[in-house]
Each structure stands twice: as structure tokens, then as C-alpha cells.
Amino acid sequence: MDSVPAAVAAPQRDLARHFTHVRARSMQLAAPLSPEDALLQSMADASPAKWHLAHTTWFFERFVLASRPGYTPWDPAWDYLFNSYYKSLGPAHARPQRGLLSRPSLQQVHAYRQHVDEQVLARLRDGDLGSDALQHLQLGLQHEQQHQELLLTDIKHAFWCNPLQPPYREDLPIAVSALGTQGWVEQGERIVSIGASAWPRYTAFAYDNESPVHRVLLPAHAIAERPLSNAEYRAFIDAGGYRDPRWWLSEGWALREAEQWQHPLYWDDDLLREFTLGGWRELDPHAPVCHLSYYEADACARWAGARLPTEFEWEAAAASQPVEGHFADDDHLHPMAGQGDGLRQLFGDVWEWTSSAYGAYPGFRPFAGNLGEYNGKFMCGQWVLRGGSCATPRGHMRASYRNFFMPPARWQFSGLRLDALQALTDLTPGRQQILADAVAGLSHASRQLPSKYFYDARGSRLFEQITHTREYYPTRTELALLDRVLPEIAQAVGPRVHVVELGSGSGRKTARLLAALQDPVAYTPIEISRAALLSSIDHLAPALPDVEMLPVCADFTRPVQVPAPERPAARRLLFFPGSTLGNFADEDAIALLRAMRQTMGGQGLALVGIDLHKDPALIEAAYNDAEGITAAFTLNLLARLNREVGSDFDLDGFRHQARYSTARLRIETDLVSQREQDVHLDGRTFHFSAGEPIRVEYSHKYTDASFGHLLQQAGLEVVAHWNADNPAYGLRLLRPAP
């Protein structure tokens, strides 16, 4: 079977080589399986490996060999056993019962394959196949490559269902690579050609569902440069994506509830490992997320403020790209992170769900004869996926290829790529920025880590819990003060203001402010995290239908171009609550206030919350709550570094410490090493002595004099002020100084 007869004419010799290669590849994929493994069928949608080997052989026997007079079938009864869905050829064994076929044996199926292979190669050698049979042979090879992928995904599901959860192959390599940036490729409105020329009229193979070529009008849109990663999908999970029906289609939510989905198929409940064809392995945060249903992919895209691309948008983007990527030929059999920048990973790694229902192109004509059942009759209730996966043979893929599955399907290597009507910038620091900041801070003589990295999804949840603790007074004190003085604030600010908030927060204070103002024109939260930004808008918009929502994804510590509302505003009001200003060193606070002065404009105002100096015991208690939530919040910074940049901090080896400095009027929060230890990051070793601190946060408490000094340096002055007395806390209305 490994040699090709030399006498075969050139075109048929090439076809014979391809036939030999594809058939051998199927046997190679099945080789790690025992006869018992090959009989496994874990669900109705899957098939045993033995059935895949037999069915693909039946296809060649039925559509190639049997087309010539005088051919004697291997076993006429097998026509019933290994037909799939070609009803015009006769009845077929029920799909859900394929796992009951202990006979014929695997050895008999191997003999069947060898017999059919010998017969096909002999016909090719003798030139005894007509044009129809040759076309059916080419189609059969494409068909077998489809089943090679199904063999892998079906056995993966079967082994996952086994309580022992054995690996398919223990020798599969583990790929470790960094995640490239996520950008957007913007496309203007245009008319594009979609599809492939009908085969076999034209030389290049294409399935009937890929033709004919036709023209499609695409709207202006932006497609993400790469598929969504595991880490990015986890942000959807951490934000409550599997608990919030707002993001889900009705049928998807019902299925999620019925089957208790909490994460992608094959992830463990701790979201740290995933089951692969190589067994259980650590979840690679940078690899494309996979094994998603259409419902999960669609919900995640909605949560991200985006959507799935249509199959036409996807094909138009892929048409100019080479068919390169991580395919089954690479023998990783699991998605890997792509390298570089720009549009990439359109082929291989994961099939990408699109928002397109699987249907016929205008002028669609199915394959002739019995093969007309191959694709056309499934054009109802299924969704299109594009691009191939890590289990797809490289030579099987092309830009026009249309795969399709029912929306609940999760056992394929299926993921997603975002698309939107406009590019969605997310300035959340990427791995390289976090790594650079961590290395720089830990290399400093006085160890430090930036407090801005507290706020991953878990950190944000923990901080919200902190605001409800008995000891943490700033949030409830500021809320009570706001409720008391909002009428005065509204009078001082005046009507028709455009509220610009620095950081989107939970929205509790913002909702109160907007409700109290007279005819507010617009609301613009400025936030580096797109997810947090969209969450704040989603929370506020329903209650404020007359307020234009104009979110901006940007770093508010720098001057920001604020969008102009449709209805002219009398002035801008910058809103900066929560005493967040106190988290900055004095020089950084002055720089931020100067940026605010530029953003608010000449007639603008700023409402700023500041925590005031008071009894140090009361202040220290607020940052050392009895429940330990603040300590967990602080230590989560180390957990984030371990997860996102590969450090190995032992969280039990550090403790939270927050002390108030009366000399500097600030809380100084440290993570203190409990023992002598080494931490490794980016090939470097950082040695810690017992008791050595890492400074992670300041929280300044102001007096009128200390805050006034900052304002003077920034060119701002106080218009009005309001204080809470017990505990002391202040709101200051500011304007540019003349």
C-alpha cells in the first residue's frame, strides 16, 4: 500500500499517491487505539473510530468501485452498516447505535480497507476508472479527511467521558508561546466576490455548498486580528458571563441551565487545566479558546460589545491570506498561540463560529446523483464555521470552505473571532507591559508593584466586596455625603452638563449624580478596560434614556479627546469619586489634575472625592478588615502575575500589611515576605529576605493645606466644598484657576 505503480499515467499517478497518503493517515491516527477504544461511542453525535475507518472505505467501494460492472462487494450486508445518510442508496444503521457494532471486528475492518485500497489502486493503474468515478475518488479523499478530524474529536470526547480520562497520545508536544497583540482590521463598505467555482467543471476542488461565486455587499466593519484567547474568554467567565442571561440567546440560556455549563467543554472547574488529546494539561492562557458552542461564542461576543463576523466578512478577510496555521499535520493536535501582529490565525487552530446560518448560495446546485445528499439537505438549523482547526489536514482547507454544526455542538475545536461595526480598542495592559512593569518594580532597591494591576476580573470583584465591609468607610461615607449635598451640587453645576467620569466603577454614585442633575446631556466614562466600560453603560443606560452614552476606552491619566454629544452641553463636569486621587504619589497626582484641567475645558468643572486625615486607628482598620477581604485583594496581585506573566510567587509566602504613616499622611500597603525565598520571573531570580516588603499601594489622606498644594501646582481652585464629619471625608468642586 505504500508504493505507487510506476505505470500509472501522470495525473492518475498523482491521484494514486494522494489516495495512498490519505488512507495511510487515517490508519496512523487510529494506531494508538486498542480494539476496545475503537468501538467507543460517547454520544449520538459521535461515532466509533472503527466506524469511521469502515465508512470512509464504504464510500470508495460504493461510489468508485461499484460504478463499474462486475464488481463484487466485500460483504453486501455492510452496505447497511456503514452507509451514513445516503437515503437514496437504501436504509442505514441508526447513528446513535454505531457503538453497538462489535462485529465486524476491527481486524475485519482493516482487511476491508486493504481490499478496497488494492482495488482502487489497481483500477487507477489500469486506467479503468471513468471521469465520474475519478471525480468520486477525489471527493472521497476530501470526505476521508473530514472523518480524520471527526475521529480525533470523537475519541477525545469518549476518553473524557471515561472516569480514568486517559490520553489519546501521551507524546503530544506541549507548546508554550507568548500572546500577540489584539488589534482590529477595519474594512469599508464594499462589494466582494464570495464562494468557489463549481467543481468538477473547474479544476480546483470545492464542495457544492461553496458555489457558485456570487457578489455580496459588506457593511463597514472591523474584524479582530486573531481569535479570542483562553485568558480573554476567562474574563467573560469571571465577569459572570455564565450567570447573566442578558448575553445569551434564549435557546442557549435554556441549554446552559439544563446542562449546567460554567465554562468551555474540557476545562476543569478551577479554570486552570483542560483535557486534551494528550490528557490533562495546564490551561495555556494565550492559546485560542476552543470547544465552545455557538451559544457560548455569541454570548461572549455580545458581552465584549462586539459580535461574530458573518461568514462573508470572514471569507473576505481570509481571501488575501495564505492558508497557513497550526493544522493536524503539525502533530500538536491542540490550538497554539499565534505569533506576530496583523491579521492572523484565520486558518488552523480553531474553527471560528460565524453569525451566518448555513444555507444555499444563490444559484446553488448540489452534486449530481446520490451525492446530492452530501451537503444540501443539511441547510436548516445549522451555523457556519470557517478556517479549519488543529485537527484539520492542511491540504483540506481553503478560504471558501464552509463547515457547519448545530448551535449546541461543543466537541469540535470551535472558537471565535470578534467583529464589530467599528474597531473596539481595549487599552487593558497586555502581557508584555505587565511583565516589563513587574520586572522593573521588583528590580528596584525598594521592591514595588503598580497598584493598577489589582483590577483584573477577580480583583474588581474583591474590591466591590471591600466597599461593603464594616471597616471600609470611604464608599458608604461618600454615598451618604452625596445624597445629602446633591441638590447643592446640581445648583452649583447648572443644567445641560456633559458628565465625564474617570474610571467607570460600579455606577452606584454615577447613577445618583446623573439623576440629581438638571437635564444632563451626555455621560462619558473613561476606562482602559472595554469590558468594564460596556458593563457600566449597560447598567446605567436603561434608567437614563435621555442621556447620550459616549464611552471612551482610554487611559484617564493622560489628556483625552472627549466625544461631542449630539445635543450641545453648557459645560463638562468631570467626576472622580472614591478618593482614587489618593492612590497617586504627589507628583503623579499633580500630573493627573493637570490632565483633568485640560480635559474639562475652560468652562468645565470637576467633582472630586477625597479622604481626609483622621484617627489613624480608624484608617488602618479600613485597610485591614476582619474578614480578610482586603488581604485577599492585595494577594490577588501576585496570583495575577503568576497567571499572566509566568511568575512563581508562593501566595502563602507573603502577607498583607497596611499601615498609616502620620508623617506622610498616607496608608502604605505592602506584601511582606514571610521567609527567605526566591521568586522567578522572565528568566530572572528575585531573592527576598524574611520581612522584606513589596510596596503595592499608597492611599493619601488629605488636609485642606495638603490638597490645596496639589491644586495650586495643577492650576485648579475650589469652587465649593462639602465635608462629612464622622468619619471625615470631602467632596470638592474644582475649576481652572484664572
Automatic annotation (TrEMBL):
One of its GO terms (biological process) is methylation. One of its GO terms (molecular function) is methyltransferase activity. Pathway: Amino-acid biosynthesis; ergothioneine biosynthesis. Pfam families: DinB_2, FGE-sulfatase, Methyltransf_33. Residues 19-150 form the DinB-like domain. Residues 203-334, 342-418 form the Sulfatase-modifying factor enzyme-like domain. InterPro entries: CTDL_fold (IPR016187), DinB-like (IPR024775), DinB/YfiT-like (IPR034660), EgtB (IPR017806), EgtD (IPR035094), EgtD_Methyltrsf_superfamily (IPR051128), MeTrfase_dom (IPR019257), SAM-dependent_MTases_sf (IPR029063). This is L-histidine N(Alpha)-methyltransferase. Signal peptide: none annotated. Keywords: Iron, Methyltransferase, Oxidoreductase, Transferase. Residues 436-735 form the Histidine-specific methyltransferase SAM-dependent domain. It comes from Knufia peltigerae.
